[in-house]
Design goal:
541 residues; alpha/beta; Rossmann fold; ten-stranded mixed sheet; nine-stranded mixed sheet; 17 helices; globular
Length: 541
């Protein structure tokens, strides 16, 4: 729907909600789609609505001086509605169990429910209604309620029940539920917010968790209260079942899978990373450097990893290894592998990757013994990109060289670049910043230490990313220059040119991941002449 009026005309529940909100706070602004540019704007008040697919709409509401709220606007169900729903639901459950051909995916399952609903219901209240009910075993649902009840059955049987609107919302990163409290979400634009959704009691919550985990063949129970699994769309589910383990009641967290990654230019607009830092990654990755993005939980490591993966040569053969499928690259020659319980571990897949002889190996996150294989891969000339859980360079060295990873310190310099990213508070809200980019030079045997060099440091006072290695970058001069065939002066000029290209793309709000990837490819092949817009190369010193 392009306008709020069109949306309200089709959805009476939305019209009713908007009328109530307008009387109290004024009419909400309607956005068919949100813009990531909204993230960088400081909003004292927020009152907006956007669709996530009929019949659901999202209202983001923040009165001045208060915290923002995330409200799902969906149909309301009367006791009569729920009576029809329960009858239809139980009948469809019985019929589905008798179907010979099991639906292969969610779309097929939804189509099956729609077909069965049509076969099993009667919507006309004729004098012979009782005959159809008796002979043909049909259930009567008034015509005006039919689609509403059918959608509820689909939501409960083939979708995600109460959290279906969250799963549809492309702007949500995380969903968390603790007991019967209101669910919380992390929004890509507006940050962490309490929602208006909650489970009415512990029984309903535990039933939801059990149904969801059973569908994944990993049923949660008192015997097995902790479950980690991947949802069909690639989202990561973590469940803690039972009050014996979770004091405030059963809980779950869903880390949503993003189908279209956030681009490097979007990160520049958010000031997560500077154009010069992005250009640095572009050059070192073009030369086959091994790069890790490290940081604490919720620092945006995977988001940045996917963004900089666009700098890998388009013709490269890429092999990715993950526990749950989060990594995405736009390259055509991409082998995507995921662990399977009892069949293949990260360690197994990384060993297989070495035999496949890829140009780049991407590891979702290094946590255990697979780290040793990753560093062996670097030792044999296979560049590796990955994320790691450590908030500083020293912490990274301690963790990577200690158990359970146990990478010998003399192997660590096979990693060329270590970037540290953090979630920090600016202007009262959490934002992500690349706080440092460090080059790893060599292992100093007499002292047993790793020699490193900080090339970028974030200035928290000015919120700036400072380049500390003009004409003094070890990796640029010793690794990138020979590969690209550049003299020292040309090397740093090329860095500034690429930074100017990325800055111009950001200024023009070219943020679509695939469009950005295509422009990176065109510059790599044809230089500035290959771009569809002029670029003024400026001095960055």
């Amino acid at each position: 729907m392009k306008t709020l009026q069109e949306a309200m005309a089709k959805n009476p529940h939305l019209a009713k909600y908007v009328q109530e909100i307008t009387r109290k706070y004024g009419e909400p602004e309607y956005y068919p789609e949100l813009s990531y540019d909204m993230k960088v704007k400081k909003m004292e008040t927020i009152n907006l609505i956007y669709p996530v697919g009929d019949p659901y709409y999202i209202h983001i509401f923040k009165p001045e001086g208060s915290e923002p709220e995330y409200r799902v606007v969906g149909p309301e169900y009367s006791e009569e509605d729920l009576k029809y729903f329960r009858e239809l639901y139980s009948r469809i459950i019985k019929r589905v169990s008798l179907i010979e051909r099991i639906p292969r995916n969610q779309d097929e399952f939804i189509s099956t429910i729609i077909r069965l609903t049509k076969e099993m219901t009667l919507t006309e209240n004729t004098p012979y209604r009782w005959l159809y009910e008796l002979i043909f075993d049909k259930i009567y649902i008034p015509k005006e309620k039919f689609y509403k009840i059918r959608e509820l059955v689909i939501r409960e049987l083939a979708q995600y029940s109460e959290i279906e609107p969250f799963m549809r919302d492309p702007y949500i990163e995380d969903i968390s539920c603790v007991g019967t409290n209101h669910l919380w979400i992390v929004h890509k634009i507006f940050g962490s917010m309490r929602t208006n959704i909650r489970f009415k009691d512990e029984e309903e919550l535990e039933d939801f968790i059990y149904r969801m985990t059973e569908l994944l063949n990993r049923p949660a129970s008192e015997v097995k209260p902790i479950v980690d699994a991947a949802l069909p769309d690639g989202s990561r589910l973590n469940v803690i079942y039972s009050k014996d383990v979770s004091i405030r009641g059963s809980s779950f967290t869903i880390r949503k899978f993003t189908k279209i990654p956030i681009s490097i230019t979007q990160l520049i607009l958010w000031n997560t990373i500077s154009p010069l830092e992005a250009a640095y990654f572009w050059m070192v990755i073009s030369a086959g450097a091994s790069v890790f993005i490290s940081g604490e939980t919720a620092a945006g490591k995977t988001t940045t990893l996917k963004a900089i993966a666009a700098f890998i040569d388009p013709r490269a053969k890429i092999y990715s290894v993950e526990d749950t499928p989060e990594i995405y690259v736009p390259h055509k020659n991409w082998e995507r592998t995921v662990t399977a319980e009892g069949k293949a571990t990260m360690f197994d897949l990384l060993k297989a990757a070495l035999r496949a002889r890829p140009d780049y190996i991407i590891v979702g996150e290094i946590r255990g013994e697979e780290g040793y294989i990753a560093f062996q891969a670097m030792q044999t000339g296979h560049p590796v990109m990955s994320t790691f859980h450590a908030g500083s360079v020293n912490s990274f060295i301690r963790r990577i060289s200690g158990p359970p990873i146990n990478v010998p310190k003399e192997y660590i310099p096979n990693l060329n670049v270590l970037a540290i990213q953090q979630s920090v508070v600016r202007g009262g809200k959490a934002v992500r910043r690349m706080i440092s980019i460090t080059e790893i030079e060599r292992y100093h045997a007499p002292s047993g230490s790793i020699i490193t060099r900080d090339v970028f440091l974030w200035d928290p006072v000015q919120d700036k990313h400072d380049f500390r290695a003009w004409y003094n970058s070890y990796i640029l001069e010793q690794m990138v220059a020979p590969v690209l065939g550049l003299a020292k002066d040309e090397l740093y000029q090329e860095l500034q040119t690429r930074a100017s290209v990325l800055e111009e793309m950001a200024k023009r709000h070219i943020t679509d991941y695939f469009q950005v990837y295509d422009l990176i490819r065109r510059y790599t092949e044809f230089g500035l002449e290959g771009l569809p817009f002029p670029v003024e190369v400026r001095e960055w010193q």
